[in-house]
Amino acid sequence: MRLGVARSRVQVSPSRLRPALGGSLPDKPNIYLEMKKLLTIISLLFLFPNIAIAAPSKQNNKYGISLLQPTQEEIKQAADLVNSQGGDYGYVTLVIQENDRDRGRWQAIFDELRKRHLIPIVRIATSPEGENWRRPTKEDAQGWVSFLDSLNWVIKQRYVVLFNEPNHAAEWGGEVDPKSYGETVEEFAKKLHEKNKDYFVMLAGFDASAPHDPSTYEDEEIFLRAVLRLKPEILSNIDGWASHSYPNPAFSGSPWDTGRKSIRGYEWELALLKELGNTKDFPVFITETGWIDARLSRQTIADYYKQAYEQVWGTDERVHAVTPFVFSYQSQPFTGFSWKRQNGEGFYPQYGQVLGIAKVAGVVEQKESGAIIGSLPEKFVSSSEYHATLKLRNTGQAIWDKENGHKLLVISDREAPFEYFFSDINNLEPNKETDVSLYFKTNKTEGRRMGKIVLRKNSETILESKPWRFEILPHPKIDFEASLFPKLISNSKDMEIQIYDEKEGLVYKKSGIRIEGGRGTVDEVRNIVIGKRYRIVALKPYYLPRQTHITFKKGSNRVVFKPLLPLDFNNDGRLGWDDWEAMLKNPRALLARLSL
Description:
It contains twelve helices and 26 strands. The chain is an alpha/beta fold and 596 residues long. The strands form seven sheets. It has a five-stranded parallel β-sheet with strand order 1-2-3-6-7, covered by helices on one side. Strands 12, 14, 17, 18 and 19 form a five-stranded mixed β-sheet that branches. A four-stranded antiparallel β-sheet has the order 11-13-16-15, with no helix packed on it. It has three domains: 14-51 and 58-355, Glycosidases (TIM Barrel); 383-464, Immunoglobulin-like, CATH 2.60.40; 477-594, Sandwich (Immunoglobulin-like), CATH 2.60.40. Helix 5 packs parallel to helix 6 (178-195) and helix 6 packs across helix 7 (220-230).
């Protein structure tokens, strides 16, 4: 199908617009043939019980739609359609013109497709020149390769269709030229594969109904024969077959018709390729198909789509995806193909019909990559609790989320000597990062260990941290000095020690500590990291707190506080005017604390 050039009318192949010829529409498929196939399989299973029936290695959701240049709303509506009723990872065909290669815009579209589990099939296009589309050249390939490679694709395979219906002169600079087309797409396919083996390259979909009129159109068979005669090696650089299998004549044919001008047009194309020497089993991507409402009611079109999807395309293992033309087209001459009503007011019946068809959840391969950034403590103590923060960076294709099976684990050379859990990973998109928390509680086990942090999706390990070598040590102790001004001999049994980390989090405290002669001890300090600096605070009721800093080492640690002043009359831990008010109300308390 040719999209609008910069003019008021768009030419459509005359063979597509001819009145429908005679023919009857079967009410149902040939049940006899289907039963015969089934009985043959059952017979083989009884005769050869060890026979294996080939099955696809991965589930595939064939349902799709042509979005052309999508909006965020249309992407959501398309996903609702093709991923309904158990479906997942359906397809959308997009068109990118050379004058619209805005990386930011298209990456945003790809990111939205990723969120909605839609696989893009990208048809590249040049730009309008008067009545025609500019003819691409081999020199254009590098620019396209650079642009396409700058995008983070939704899945590992990057589906690319090289231009559109080149057997139309208007699609190829005003001239039907098989030689130019063959040379150009050969260069494009070669460059794409050289850049990245994940590109899945297809020739343009052809107009199978075009007549032999070399000044304007060329018969597809004549065109393909010419291309392969001039460039017989071209198929070795092609990975799949894009087909425009329209139900002709007049886009109104029966879903049960066969032949080149039917929705089974791809069968005729595959047979022709085989006749021309092709030995590859090309998966088929029907990137354009569909009925128009000029001769058919919208309800008939809806019924035709259901029959086609369920009993024609859906039962053919060669068909990998079907993206009918077109989800939304709000102006002539293609409003008759649009699934979305004009002015955006709801959908035509085919939307609801296909929405209700049972589908399968597609299983796709996405590149998983990223980094676990940050350092973990190397020397900590037994029977303690810790909180560490790491940064998780996603540089792959998948969205990381606990609902998708993504989780972080600690893997150790032996059984981990602590209990732990990580904060959940929620909706971490590619090219973004987030902080994750690791909470762990050591047991009484001491000694050296080695482990690492790994990110897994279900049972598959996606990435690993650098080795984490750590040692669990006995509790250190604190010997401290804290005199009580103005006492000559400082004795007390209600001292408290608090320890804060670099983020001002309270990691440990102990109250009811006895001091004699201004000296006290905390025998077992928990929850600290050896070699790390902490703020340590001494408190006593009605005295202002004193603080200092300490870097903990193994064994005994000595700390000296400045004298504590008895000025916290309201016992709130700080000095303020309200302390003077409290003192004036009870001056005897001050005199008692000032006594030597």
